[in-house]
Design a protein that fits this description.
Leucine-rich Repeat Variant
């Protein structure tokens, strides 16, 4: 007798199916939570490092910019990223191209001025920035060196004072062609800024002898004038004779000393106007940092600044005119020296 096959479908295991469905649901729920958490984490990291990403992007664009206007624009973009711009700017400051290095140092200086207290105290990454400023004082490009001088001055880097004094003493005088040109010679501006920053850094007892030496020995007239501007109020009566010797120097001055630049700042101009009253004619702040020729095309000379200080300190006049014939100048210089000798100078 044959057996009929059993074709009955077994009843499904309801409990097992429900357990499997529950496990599947838990898996997808956990995966969804993990994905959401990862997205939130990535968003938070992106938010935290947003400026770093932008700063590096700006550095890349600056490095590949072909015009000065584009380099300036991307340098400003980097500055807007604040402290995040420091690392990419330090990297760019090692670029082979001087124009890129100059923009990079400008970025570092601008950010340092926004955080000058931390920069001067050497907090966080500022020692690295200060060290880079120091290294760039020896750069082969004059503009890079000028910005490096501004940098060590802003952070008050006392370790740089000897180098600043060396720059001030060794910068050559401008050539006749440079004097006749439309732009200030880089060497003159470098020496003037090094002298001005040296006076600001301190300590005073170390800086003062350096400035007095620069006053006497500097080869560049703009440097000598800045030394006069920085040190005249600290000259002893005996040292005023050094200023009388400077009256022999009638070379033209191209860069205004620091005090004149500050006085031409619009905010300082307004302060002077309030102090002196209305109706006072103030110097045009648009004249810029360079000296301006007079109606005869003559620029002020080193001797003009020296005699101005002598008159201010002594209250005396001895008829000195830097543009007079040499014999008249020498006679006036003798009168100054005789007076200073009588006064115990």
């Amino acid at each position: 007798m044959s057996r009929t096959p059993d074709t009955t479908i077994p009843a499904p295991d309801t409990a097992a199916a429900e357990a499997q469905a529950a496990r599947r649901e838990r898996f997808w729920n956990r995966l969804t939570v993990i994905i959401i958490a990862a997205m939130i984490l990535l968003w938070a990291v992106g938010l935290y490092y947003r400026r770093e990403v932008r700063a590096n992007y700006g550095a890349w664009r600056l490095a590949h910019a072909s015009t000065l206007a584009d380099r300036d624009r991307w340098a400003d973009y980097m500055v807007a990223q604040d402290l995040a711009a420091l690392s990419p700017a330090i990297r760019l400051s090692r670029d082979d191209r001087a124009a890129v290095r100059a923009e990079a140092v400008k970025v570092l200086v601008t950010v340092a001025r926004k955080h000058y207290e931390d920069a001067r105290e050497g907090h966080d990454s500022w020692p690295t920035v200060t060290g880079r400023f120091r290294d760039l004082l020896d750069d082969s490009d004059g503009e890079v060196r000028i910005w490096a001088v501004e940098g060590v001055g802003d952070v008050r880097d006392t370790a740089s004072v000897d180098k600043l004094a060396e720059i001030a003493l060794t910068v050559d005088a401008a050539t006749p062609a440079e004097i006749a040109g439309d732009e200030v010679p880089v060497g003159s501006l470098l020496g003037q800024r090094a002298t001005a920053r040296l006076a600001q850094i301190g300590p005073h007892d170390k800086i003062l002898p350096m400035l007095k030496r620069i006053l006497v020995e500097a080869k560049n007239p703009d440097v000598r004038v800045q030394a006069i501007d920085s040190v005249w109020f600290d000259l002893t009566p005996g040292e005023l004779t050094k200023l009388a010797d400077v009256l022999h120097d009638v070379r033209p001055v191209l860069v205004r000393p620091e005090s004149e630049m500050l006085a031409m700042n619009p905010a300082v101009q307004q302060m002077i106007g309030r102090a002196l009253g209305e109706g006072v004619e103030l110097e045009d702040p648009s004249a810029g940092p360079t000296t301006q020729p007079d109606a005869l095309g003559r620029r002020p000379t080193v001797a003009d600044y020296a005699v101005k200080v002598l008159r201010r300190v002594t209250g005396r006049e001895f008829g000195f005119d830097a543009h007079a014939p040499e014999a008249d100048r020498e006679a006036a210089i003798r009168r100054w020296k005789q007076y200073l000798s009588r006064e115990g100078a």
